[in-house]
Amino acid sequence: MLRGAMAYPSMGEAHRRITDYLNNFSDAVSDQDVASLAQLFSFSSNSPSLLSLADALNFFQDANRLIKQSDKFSQFGEILAPLFRSLQSYRLGNLVDAYHAFEKFANAFIQEFRNWESSWALQALYVIAYEIRVLAERADRELASNGKSPEKLKGAGSFLMKVFGVLAGKGPKRVGALYVTCQLFKIYFKLGTVHLCRSVIRSIETARIFDFEEFPRRDKVTYMYYTGRLEVFNENFPAADHKLSYALTHCNPLREANIRMILKYLIPVKLSLGILPNAWLLEKYNLLEYSNVVQALKRGDLRLLRHALQEHEDRFLRSGVYLVLEKLELQVYQRLVKKIYIIQKQKDPSKAHQLKLEVIVKALKWLEMDMDLDEVECIMTILIYKNLVKGYFAHKSKVVVLSKQDPFPKLNGKPVNS
Fold first, then answer.
1. Mean pLDDT throughout 162-181?
2. What is the per-residue burial (b if ≥16 Cβ within 10 Å, else e) of 281-290?
3. pTM higher than 0.85 for the full model?
């Protein structure tokens, strides 16, 4: 609902406000003044002018007559009438009704937009794409609170796919396709239907009509952020690293909240590739939940890793990175074995490359991790198989014989072998 107490104007004042809005709309279209046009649709801005217009509409109750009585306005009647209805409902807090009317307005606007040869109105279309998503989310909350099925966000997604189709042509309007794609991503992630992202991604990344570099930087950053997150879910860490690193590099450095959002996913990806972040980075962007994870990797401290995952379990699960972090256990084991190797090398260099399983068992016990020889043997076998440890296993003597050359290969930005 638009903020502020309703203040119904006089009949004359209401008439003036509505007529002013209609004139502003008509002038913005005829002058191709996209900045002015976009402001007229921005419900969520709660601007005083829209607030006063909404009050005027709810008082006057016959705005359609004003639209129809002038050729200047009536040509846009299919756009303006539902827009006014939406604004009235929005002001009264009837968000489901507001959404229905807004969707009708948006569809009518798209029809008009198709007829305009140039891309002058793209910014206004961006506002509509944003507003319909936000309004749909709020309408769904209203539906859910009344025990009804929330379905408006899904509807907004269908509308935005239609918009994407309009923009995905060869003309100058195509530069708007990425903004709409990003709004679609936000909807699909919110609804948990991320598989629907694939068809849009295919269109953006394989269609010859699109040149990624011609899109606005803001949209490229958002696109890379969401597609990077998708790669995290798919456990394609090199691709996730590429996309999220692109988003981070090109993100406005003043937008710290956005940088934090990117890092929330990039850090687990980097950790999976054996790259540890600096402590100052975690502090600066308030990502201290990763501090103990990083320390565990440095120390080879399995207990600390598990404690960190348990302590921040809800947060990591919500972000969808819990399983990624859980898989860091193998790197922690590698680090622990390496530390044992270094200590042994200092004591007896000639036997440094022979690690007894019972020594590893003792080290784990010291970390309050109770494991028997069979469990440790299994872990060492996996480490060798995954190329985190070079060597072979002597079953009879329960000894791991390490390679004398590079027994603990670094990941160097590559994922652990699956």
1. 89
2. ebeebeeebb
3. yes
